Structures are given as structure tokens and as C-alpha cells.
Amino acid sequence: MKKYISKKMAPHDLRRPFKRPTISDQQRRRELTLLRQNQSRRDAQNHARFLASSVLALHDQSQSPEPISEPPIVELELATQDDSKPETVQHGELDVLQASKLGGAEARKWFAKQLMLPEWMIDVPDRFNQDWYVFSRPAGKRCFVVSSNGTTVSRLRNGSILHYFPSALPNGARTKDNSGSALSYSILDCIFHESDQTYYVIDMVCWRGYTLYDCTAEFRFFWLNSKLAETGACDSPSHYHKYRFSLVPVYNCEETGLLTVYRGATPYVKDGLLFYNKHAHYQTGNTPLTLAWKDENCSQYVIDTDSNGQIPSQQQVVLELQDDGKLITSDDPPVVFGCLDSDFIVKSGLRSGNLLRFAVSDGGLSFVDGKLEKADIQYLGKSNRARAFADSYSKVIFQYMVRHSPLRFEDLLATVSSSTTEANEPSDVDMPG
Amino acid sequence: MAMEITQVLLNAQSVDGNVRKHAEESLKQFQEQNLPGFLLSLSGELASEEKPVDSRKLAGLILKNALDAKEQHRKFELVQRWLSLDPNVKNQIKTCLLQTLSSTAPDARSTASQVIAKVAGIELPQKQWPELIGSLLSNIHQVPAHVKQATLETLGYMCEEVSPDVVDQDQVNKILTAVVQGMNASEANNDVRLAATRALYNALGFAQANFSNDMERDYIMRVVCEATLSPEVKIRQAAFECLVSISSTYYEKLAPYIQDIFNITAKAVKEDEEPVALQAIEFWSSICDEEIDILEEYGGDFTGDSDIPCFYFIKQALPALVPMLLETLLKQEEDQDQDEGAWNIAMAGGTCLGLVARTVGDDIVPLVMPFIEENITKPDWRQREAATYAFGSILEGPSPDKLTPTVNVALNFMLSALTKDPNNHVKDTTAWTLGRIFEFLHGSTVETQIITHANCQQIITVLLQSMKDVPNVAEKACGALYFLAQGYEDVGSSSPLTPFFQEIVQSLLTVTHRDDAGESRLRTAAYETLNEVVRCSTDETAPMVLQLVPVIMMELHQTLEGQKLSSDEREKQNELQGLLCGCLQVIIQKLGSSEPTKYVFMQYADQIMSLFLRVFACRSATVHEEAMLAIGALAYATGPDFAKYMQEFYKYLEMGLQNFEEYQVCAVTVGVVGDICRALEDKILPYCDGIMTQLLKDLSSNQLHRSVKPPIFSCFGDIALAIGENFEKYLMYAMPMLQSAAELSAHTSGADDEMTEYTNLLRNGILEAYSGIFQGFKNSPKTQLLMPYAPHILQFLDSIYMEKDMDDVVMKTAIGVLGDLADTLGSNAGSLIQQSLSSKDFLNECLSSDDHLIKESAEWAKLAISRAISTTEVISLQVVANSCISTMGSGTFGFWSEEVGSDGFAETGEECGINQGVTNCDDMKVHKRILSVTLGGNGGSGMTWRKLLVSDAELDYDYPGPNPKHDPRKGKPGGNSGKNA
Prior knowledge:
The structure holds 2 protein chains of 2 kinds.
Chain A: H1 25-61, H2 96-100, H3 104-112, E1 116-120, H4 128-131, E2 132-138, E3 141-148, E4 151-156, E5 161-165, E6 185-193, E7 198-207, E8 210-211, H5 217-227, E9 244-247, E10 251-252, H6 255-263, E11 270-277, E12 285-293, E13 316-321, E14 326-328, E15 336-339, H7 342-348, E16 355-368, E17 371-382, H8 393-404, H9 409-419
Parallel strand pairs in A: 1-12, 7-9
Antiparallel strand pairs in A: 2-10, 2-11, 3-4, 3-6, 4-5, 6-7, 7-8, 11-12, 13-14, 13-16, 14-15, 16-17
Chain B: H1 2-11, H2 17-33, H3 35-47, H4 53-65, H5 72-83, H6 87-100, H7 106-123, H8 132-140, H9 145-161, H10 169-183, H11 190-203, H12 208-212, H13 214-227, H14 233-249, H15 258-271, H16 274-299, H17 313-329, H18 345-360, H19 365-375, H20 381-393, H21 400-420, H22 424-441, H23 453-466, H24 471-486, H25 501-512, H26 522-535, H27 542-560, H28 567-592, H29 595-601, H30 605-618, H31 625-638, H32 643-657, H33 663-680, H34 685-700, H35 709-723, H36 728-746, H37 753-777, H38 790-803, H39 808-825, H40 830-835, H41 838-847, H42 852-890, H43 896-899, H44 905-911, H45 914-934, H46 941-951
């Protein structure tokens, strides 16, 4: 009767494993499988968390209503998977990793659209002292620095590569101690300052794969300040770290802050001041929530110079030619400065999308109710090929003001000291119409 | 009727199969037709002195089986059935049982003891049968010794059945008093004394309070120690068992007695009969276990805190303990290496010596070396074997610095002994010792390498030669090769094994084909070693690993061409298929891990898959775990192309998920579902209805082993991540399940370590599910479907944070979920998130964590939250920005006011308003109702779950480790009873 086993109060079995490994290979196989599965799950989740969100962030930013020309559909290695993921390789939806694999013109076009561009300050914004930061802009080339997969690349505003180098940024060099996923990348908004060969970091766009596009400037600056130094990127150059990175001190837009950035000494040559709205996200292209301003005291280049470094007698502007002959600024939506007639276009061999140089003639610019009514401009020729964009409206106006009735530092200072007492009333009342 | 059942019970034990079958049928009918009557008849039969002993005994056993079962769900049913019986019937049965304790038939008494314990196990926790203990204790004072003996036995069984917390301390004291008195040397009757000693073994768990009282503890210890000196061997053995149990249960109380205990055990080891001596050695092994645990806890914690201080008993006893153990090594049995079940004093002594080495480290080396030197070259094989075994035993524990000089000298000696020693036993132990050398002193973590360019070839030659020796020696040689290969795991691109790779693989394959490969688990060892050699191979040898693929495939193919096999042959064939599938799994995982080899390997994928499907097909009922593991590896390597196998494979996947009994198969299949999700992504959609149905059934089953449940939750996350917003239709089922499990796992107060560990596994599974679901829905227009669940999820995060007992894994997953929630729900959940504790204290704690992964997740969460919150602010900010621009418009150049105007934020912001909140509440009510139906509605879903969580604890012996019985307190996992043991 095997079925009914009577229990005996017998001695308990005390055998221990003898000459046996404590764990069987089968158990090992199970555990290794679990390890692999957990790792895959983590990768899948990281992918969902980091990459997908930045792909979208970049895409969202560039949804301008059909700009100059469509970027061509780009063939990548990934294109072979087209049956499984049809939507990954649609134009304009590239992420930085994919974009960094692009060559030549496509890469330039893509990167050219990724920087946040300040408008020129032609009037002092409301709540200036409460909602804005200020810092002095280092003189030099504005660029995007991307570190990923063991290398660091800096690209200028027009998308062309400035440097290709190892850095102490996350995943910025092929060193062994890279913590975190090899896929993760970082993007910094920098100005390369020639004389001390330093990248001055003015904004942080992505960090270790986390996108900061839709974070406020306040948060981005906080993150930039707390994270950059941690990596050793601010250390002196070394074998795995070719250029030094440096932070730019940022101040609240109050009297002391303004005076410090305007008059104070900096390790770099100043080129004007930059103002950032604390609550604004990183928005690619022109934005009124970041403003630039300069005068002779804080910049060598207040009035635009020509290609020979001379200040032309007349203000020059670069405008883009459209199908219908209209001449527009780079703003979104653009501002129309005038129109070329079709005979002239044909005769001069111009095509839609060309960037053309004009001089502002004696008639100048005239405004009605704050709107540009008439511009007296004269065609000079095609612009330098390195130009990627037409001038923005605010730039034209700022340059115009500089030559006629500049916005002075004292004006800025006055707003700050007066606005402390001023109530922040809704401004609709003031609206003219 | 009474007459009738006696005969039926006797017939049920008949040698004639037909008679037996008929009788069993009648018993079954009786039980089904009239349960109370059936049970009453059985108890009457058991109690009746006139009835034959055989029918009484069987009546008692059937009664016992009517109260308890191994399977949890069955046990639960039986308990409920007993509790719902008519109280009068139960009283009659109990009266019969108690009455039987006075029977003159020992078998009847003993059976009754067991049944009483089962009834007590059901009723005492319900506060029923309060008079039981009193009436048992009154028996103690009865004159007939056999009544006293039966009563003590009953008390012992009862202590085994019921948990100490259901018995009052007052009654515990009385039980212990009766038991200890029964053990006392003044008790003249040996049966009584033996029963009392065995009862004490079970009652020790009840004696917490008594062991904290010096006088009572002294008394108990004195009685136990005296019993170890009883003239009766069984009493001595039982008394030592008590000491072993005390050593782990009351380690911290032993200091005053340890010297006496050493003297007693030393005497027993030296002079007593083997069963007693084995227990005496086990006492020290058990002390080692305790001290190793405590010291490990010290080591893992910077503050050096442990609940229990280390008393360093082993270190203090070392000078006397080591010679005592070395002595035992010389008492080997002739053929112990061929006998799987052998356990003798030499084996126990050697095992204990190994534990002592792990406990004290370097200190053991000078105490053992003279013994080795003296004996290793002696003509008597016993001395050579003992010396070798002593050497092998102390290789784990002492520092490599201490051992390396000796090992360097010994290595050559061992290699020579393995080829030349005339004795198999010596060769077996020598090969085992070489394996231990490679396991502990060879590898990238060891500074001074004992294997060099110079001796590598010789080592391999000797091991391959030994693989042709008798099976037990060959098996140990395979084991040594296993660890030799393992030591080169992280060797980089070029391995010292490369020149020998082909030869090693060939030799291992030859071993698998030996006629006697079935003995001493030689074939298994050869395949396991082959697996390790493949796992540790480098790019250089990848072409040879590729060549192995068709070879193993052919072997597997041959097992499928089977003719009619006997059940014995089929079992062997099954085992072989398991080994071959396991080997293919390792190869697939290896070759799949680098692009070039994966590309070449893929040419075999179709054929391999069809072989695996045939393996499943030839096991009509169950799915082969090894084949399932291999398929997971194949899916991982194949990626989206795996879709072409799904149609054929799906039924086996479902079968695996339905396999409650072999829960490992179920667990492995759940993992494979995850692999397939990641491989196929949304192409898994057509199979999701079936898979989700099965997973939900698994979760609500109380038959399925609890360890499978956390991975099932994680699997929800895998599915959601793969199919994205298509997970919508499963939300109404999955979310309530998750929510109810979350509520249960939020609090662990009062749980023991093991329960806390399980709870953390459960939390991790739940959180991974949430992560996958949130990320799956991200950027979908349907994200608002998740809004109703957000408050609860945040509350769950808050409560596990406040509970302060989550481990690092849970912490990392939990803070990630916070980020996922913010990432997916964005501004809609902004204010909810800001109100939660998790977004502040918990997040800050994680941000400052030393654990890289926690910090990484926390930084991500912080960003996601700041985005979600700043988007909320941007709605108002945009208004500010607009107005600031309009101000400028009022000045000179006012074109902006018209251009920067409308944006989508405001509309999105309003959508998360009040009407969402309302549907939210309603939805949850509906979900609760569905849940209680799904879970089977045993007194509310929550109750069932809690029961499940707790009651499964004792079944958890399935992950094999060293010693199953070792710790009665915690029920540590142990006991390598797996097929590869």
C-alpha cells in the first residue's frame, strides 16, 4: 500500500551535498537566461524612456510649416528594416544618433535647425527682472557639441563640423569606464572661444540620453551647473579630453546681475549679452524668449561688418527669395521686406530659396502701428554660400536701431530698477488695437 | 456498516489487485455519498480494540489524508471541509481519537497521534478544541507507560503541525514541562524517554521564552545533554538531533554550554555508533552554517551590524575540532563513490572540515598541512585519500595568498596521482580536488595565477586522459575541466584554451557516447562541461562552436527517431533531449551575442526550431523546460523573423503557461513570452489575447507556485511595451490585478526575511508592469486611459517608500515608474505628482544613492517630472509670454502679438479636468468586482491572495541548495533534489 505512507518519528536526514558543485548547470542556465532577460528588459525600457522621447522632442521642434526646402529622405543603414518599423526613418524624425551618422549636406541641414536662436532685443520685455536671466556671451563660434558612442563632435550653426575629438563628456571618448548605456548621448549648446581653445557651455540640450528640450531654462541651467563639472569636462585638456569646457556665470536680470555681466571681467572676450526667459523651453530656431543685445562697451562687433571686416556705409540685410518673388526674413512666419520682379529674377539667374544681400538705402525702414510698412532696399548680390539662413526681422531692426537710435544699457538698467516698484498688470490694456 | 468497513479496509490492502481495486472503489463511494458517516466509521474503526490492527491503521491513515494534502489548494479545500462539518460529528471523531491513545496496539496509537495533530493543526488556529492540550497533559500522569508514550508522541506531532503563536505561553510551559520530564534520566521506560526526546525536537520552536530564562534554559540543556549519554542508541541519536536544532535556533544562547557540548560530541564522534556520530558532526556543521551567515552579514555591511553577534565558537574550538574531524576522514567505506545514497562518517567529517575552513579562513591551514604531508604518500589508500580529501576541503575559505604556495607544489603531485594512483577512490578525490583548485584559485579575480603557459597543456592532457577512466573518476575530471574553463571566462579575445579547444570538445563528445555514461551522472557532467567550454569561448574559437551546431542537432535528431521505447528508456531519452536542448541553448546564446557569428548561425535557425517543436510534440502532455529555454534564446537571437515560427509554436507556449504542476516550466515560459515580445514587438499582437488570458489565469490560480507570479507581472510590462496602446483592451483586467497585488505588497510589517524578500520580488514585478504600460502608451492619443490609475500608483510608491524595507532593485524600478508616469501623462498628472511624497523625499533619496542604477533612474525621473510640471506652468507662461510680447507690440514694433498666439497647450490642459476624475472612481469599482470573480472569490480576493502568499512559504524548497532540513526556523531553501543533482 504505497498510497498510504505512515510517517515515522524517524531521525531526520542530514546528508549534505558531497563532492558536488553547489549549483547545477541547469540552474546556472536558468539564471543566465534570467540575467539576459532582465538586461533586455532594461534596454527596452531605457530605449523607450530616452531615445523615443528625444526623437519626438526633436521632431516636435521642427514642425515649422514647410520651411525653405524639404530635407531629402535619407537612406540610413536602418532603412533595411523598413518592413518592421516603417515610421522610424521618416524625414525630419531623425534622432541625434541617426543624424550623427549622416554625411555632408544632410547632416548640415539637420543640425542647422537644432540650435535655439535668440531674437535681437529691440524693446525691454515685461517682468524683465523677475523672469529673465542674463549672461555675457563669449565671443566665438556658436556650436552644438554632441558626445556619443566614444566620440565628441562639434557642429557650427550651419551644420558643418568644427571639431571631432575625444572629451570627458559622457560617452565622449573611448575609455573603459563609461558608465551608462553606450547608446546614451549628450548635447551641449556652446560657443567655441578661439584664444583659450575653450568651449563655453551656454545651454544643455540632452544629458546622458535624457532630453532637456522641454525643460525650463531654470532647470536646464541648474542641471548644467550640477552635472557638467562631475564629468571632468571642465578639467584641463588631456589625452582623452582635447578641449576644456567651461560654464558661463548666469545672473538674475537685476541691477547687480546686469552690472556684473556688463562691466565685470570675464576669462573670455565678451560679445554682447544674452537674456533667457527662465520658464522657456529649449526651442529650436528663432525665439522671442531668448534675446541678444550689445553695444560698443561689451562687444567688438556691434555694427555688422562685410566679408572684409569693414563696416559698410549702408546697413546690409540678407533675405530669402520666394517663388513669387517676395523677399522674406528667416522668422516663422516670415516678414516680407519687398518683392523682386520676375524679369529681374530670370535675368540674374536667381532661384527660389536663394539668399540675397541687400543694402538699406536712404529711404530706410518705415513703420506704421509698429508694423513694417516700407523698406527701401537695394540688391547687392547673392550672399556668402556659408550662410544657411536669411536675417531675422529682429536682427535687421536691431542693426537699424544701432545706426539710428540704439537701445542703451542705461535703458535696460532703468527698467530693472523701476520695475521693482511697478505692478505687473495685465498688458492688454496697453494694446493699441 | 461497521462490519462492512473492516472488511473493505482489509481488502484495500489485499495482494490481489482486483480485490484491492474494488475495495478502494467502495471506500471512495462511501466517502462521496456520506462524508460524516464515512469519517465516523473510520474513527470508530481506529478506536475499536476488537478490530484487526491492519484495518485500524488504514482507517487512521485515510482519516489523516482526509485532513491534509501536499498541494496547497487541495489542503485548503480539506481544511474548509473539516471546519464545515457538524460539530457533533467532529466531537465524536475527536473522542475516538483521544481514546485510541490508550490502545494496547502501538500502530493504532501512533496513527491516532498523527490524526490528532492534523485536527489540531486545523482547529487550534481557529480557537477551537481548547480542551485538547489539557486532556493530553492529564494523560501524562497516567500509570500505563504506553499511554504516556503515545501522548508525548502526540504532543510532538502537534508541535510540528501548529505554529507557536496559536498556543498560550502557559500551555507551552506545561507542554515543555511534561516533555522535559519525560526525557529525564529518572524516566525508567525507554519508549517514553525516546518519545519525549523526539517531541522536544519539535517543541523547540515553542521554547523561545523558556530559552530566554537562564534557569529554564539550563534545565532543558542539562536534560538534553544527559540524554546524549543514555544507554539506548535511539535516545542518544534523538538527543543529538535536539542539539543540532538548538545550535541553529538558539545559537546566541549556547556560550555557557559549548565546552560541555564539545566534550560530548567529541566522545560521540570517536566512539559512538555511526547514526549518533553523524549527528554529533552535524552539530558542528550547523554551527559553521550559523557563523558563516553571521560573518557574511558583517562583511556585507559597513557598520558591522548583525542581529546576532558572532561568538566565534569554531575559532575557539579549532585546535581540538580539526584533529577530531581529520580522524574521521580515515573511516571511508570501500565503494562510497559509486553509491549515490552513501553518507558516512568520513563524508560528514570532510564536509564539516570544508565548512570550518570557510568559517575561519587562513587559521585552518597550519592545522591541516601536517596531516596532509604525513599521509599523502602512504601505501594505504585510506591515508592517501584522506590526505587528498583534507586538502580539497580547505581550498575554499583561506586566502589565495595563504594557499597558492602550497597549491603550486601540490598541483604536480595531484596531476601525477590522477594518472598513476592505483586506487579509484584516491583518483576520484584527486580529480575533485583539482576541480576545487581551479574553482577557487584560478580566474581573473585571483592575483597569482597557478595555471601558466608552462603547465596548461599538461593539465589538459591529464584531465582528458582521466575522462577515459571509470565513470566516477571521469565525472570528476569533467568537473575539473568545467572550472578550468570558467576561470578563463573574462580572458578577453584570446584564451589559453584555444589551442586545445577542438581536442577538448572532441573528448567531451566521446564521453557522452560512452556505454557507461549513464553511471555516476557522467553524461550530464560531460554536457555541462561542454556548455561551460562554449560559454567561455572567444572569437578565435567561434568557428569551432559553429561546427558544433550541426553535431548537436544531429544528436537531437537521433533521439527523435525513436522506435517504441519502454518507459525506462523513454525517461532516459527525455533526459538526453534535455541535455541536448540545454547545450543548444548555450550555443545559441553564445553565437547570438555577436553580429558576425549570429549571422552565420542563422542558417540553422529553421532546422533547430523544427527540432525543438518535435521535442515538444513527442512529450504529449508537458513542455520540455530545456527546449523552452532554448527557444527563448533563439527568439532573442532571431528578432522580428521569429514571427514565422509563432503559428506552430504558439500551442506549446500556451501549454507551458498552463503547467501549474511543474512550475519551473511555467516560469521559464513566462520568461520566453518576454523574449518574444521584445523580438516581435507589435507582431505579437495576434497572440496576445491567448497569452493574456493564460497569464491572468495563472495569477488567479492558487495552485501555481508563488515564485512565478512576480515574473508574470513583469511580463505584462513586456507585452505592453511591445504592443503599445493596443494593450488598452487588457487594462481592465490587468490593472485591478496589479492594484490588488500592490495593496497586498505595500506593507510587510511582521513578515520574516523570506517573506520580505518575496514581497520585494512581487513589488518589482508590479512596478515593471506599470513601467511597461506607461512607456507603451507614451505618445499615444490614449494616454488619458491611464489617468484613472495614476493616484493609486503614486500612493503605492509612497507607501512602499514609507515602509522602508524595499531593496535596491525595487527602489530603482519604483523611481523609474514615477518617471514613466510623469513622462507619459505629462502635465495632466503634474499636480498629482507634486502632491506625492515620492516626487520629493523618495526622489531625493534616490538622487543621492550610491547605486549607479538607482541614481540613473532617479535623474531620469527628475527630468520627466520637471518636464511634466513645467509644461503645466507653460500654459500660464505662454499667457505671460504673449502678454509680454503684446506689451512690446504697444511700442514701436508690434507685429508679434498676432503671430505668437494660439498654441495647443490650453486645450490639452483642460482635458484632464473633473470629468476624468469621475469616470476614474466608477471604473475602479467595476474593476474590483471583476477581480473578486477572477480570483475565485474565497472570502474576498484580498484574503485569498494573502493566504496564498503566506501558505506557500513552506513549499519553497525547490531551488536546490545544500541542506533542506537545516534551519527549522526560516525554512531556508535547500536540498538539491533536482534531476541534475
